[in-house]
Amino acid sequence: MNWNFNQDEVNAAGDVPFASGMYAVANGALANNDLVVIDATDASGLPRATPADADALATTAGMVGICHGGGATAERVLVVPWKIVRDVDTSAAGAANDAVYVSATPGGWAAAQPAAPAEHRTIGTVLAVSATVGVVFLAPGYYLHYQKSNDDLTFGDNLADAMSFRQGAQFYQRFRTTNDEEAITLAPDGAATATVERSQLIFRTSATLPALTASGDLGGGPIYVRTATGAVSVAQANAGGLLDIRTGAGGASATAAIAGGAGGAIVAQSGDGGASTQTGAAGAGGAATVQAGAGGAHTAAGIAGAGGAGGALSLVAGAGGAQSFATGTGAAGAGGGVTVTAGAGAAQTGGAASGVGGAGGAFTMTAGAGGATDNTGASAAGAGGGLTMTLGAGGAASAGTGAGGAGGGFTVTAGAGGNSLGGANGVGGSIVLAPASAGAGAGTPASAGVVRIGGTAPMPLVTNGAYAALADAAATLSAAQHRSGLVSVAVGAADRIITTRTAAQLVADFPGVAVNTRVPLYLANLKAANTVTLAAGAGVTLAGLTAIVPAATGSLWWFVFDNVTGGVEAITAYRVS
User: Fold this and answer.
1) How far is the CA of 133 from the CAs of 93, 136, 137, 429, in angstroms?
2) Could you report the per-residue pLDDT of 255-286, keeping only the tens digit for each?
3) What is the secondary structure of 265-298 as a DSSP string?
4) What are residue 355's DSSP bridge partners?
5) In whole angstroms, what is the distance from residue 140 CA to residue 143 CA?
6) What are the extents of the domains in the chain?
7) Closest residue by Cα to residue 470 from 461, 462, 480, 455
8) pTM score, two decimals?
9) Kindly report the CA angle at 167 between 163 and 168, in degrees rounded to 5?
10) Cα 463 to Cα 434: distance, rounded to the nearest angstrom
């Protein structure tokens, strides 16, 4: 702006900075202390001063000044960038240092925000509150310029500048203290925004604001980081906005004995629960949730499109750094660990009180359920999500005589029971591997899930599942009876033959079974004098000792899966006792 008021000397200004003033042509009648927008020039080339008005964006944004002395339409007037105005009504302000705004009266200003949908622009500060001798400091240029509609303030320039301490922070504080329900939105490109709402800080690209809480006691200010929903066009449905949070890489070291810098850490920590000093319960700790998005639904009837897969959730620790110098003795870096630890239960410290200590936090890993189908055709429902935990392979020793690295171990350790000085000691925690039952619908019967342990090492197994108690009659084993691992034949006066499942049936009975899988079956003869003979189903070969089980004895068989290919299934049952 070209300040062209002339004087012989420049001294410190009092209430009016005449040396910083400029002449302009009034675009409408102006009174002393009216706010004006410098929005054009007249035919002579002088700037044009239009009364500022909060009812219109064009007369609220831009370069705003203060008219000193007033003037009629088309007259030349003096416009100054700031001014101290005394003996005015500032009773609408709550306290000194509250904001002054462009008002909805042309040329006017007010110590209270104009009602929506008027534009809210801060142009000064209340210095003294009074209905008759109030004082205001009007300085529109000292506050961040913005464009706004409805109840949001939108900054259209540079986000970094808007958030600077000399501008953005001052403006944010002004609105945070004067109107709990105002929102400030910073929009550098019309898409990405940052919103301050009460004492909340929200970085988002969504057009929807979180709901405001009730007036009164407010919780701590949350921070929201959100991206926008993907737009739908005729050609395609667009992906939701990406949220990418990355820390910097550690700095490289080019100096001997100086370690490279560590990569920047990412910490996501919820707040501790608030303490209670009265009878009310202390607050629960804040929850931390990392949740992948659900797959999009496919809702068009008669079209063969599939629903979208649910978003994956990955926790991947960094790989260890390589040690690449042939003559060096330093070890390569270990891979980063992934630790998920549930919170410990709080101690009960009430002396002789009967309260119990808090339970340790549960740790749950649950795969997603398969999607249902209500299609009347042959569409299958989705399989439930698998849960796979794979330990790292040992590193290879590709040269020299060093040993290869050991493969990572997998340890599941139940918690120890707590000690007691006088009462019962706590029971040790159990480890339960529970396969699920088969579906019970009206369709074709299916096998229940199995617990399968690979490897070559022997392992004692204990099960509390029901065993198969057969009546005194010839029988062919069902899937459930064979899978129980224990079959007994009731007391009776006749020899009986019990036939195994076929090889094809057994392969189907144990989903995911592989070649060389071994399944035990113990056959108990409860008869006093008669025998029980195990007969082989199709594709099953009995090997080892005789298949006859004498009275009042039993026999243990191991069914070894020799071939699991459909149509050529083969199993050998070895009697070992």
Assistant:
1) 13, 10, 13, 76
2) 777 777 777 778 777 777 777 777 777 777 77
3) P----PPPPPP-SSSSPPPPPPP----PPPPPP-
4) none
5) 6
6) 1-6+13-142, 144-209, 468-575
7) 480
8) 0.47
9) 35
10) 10
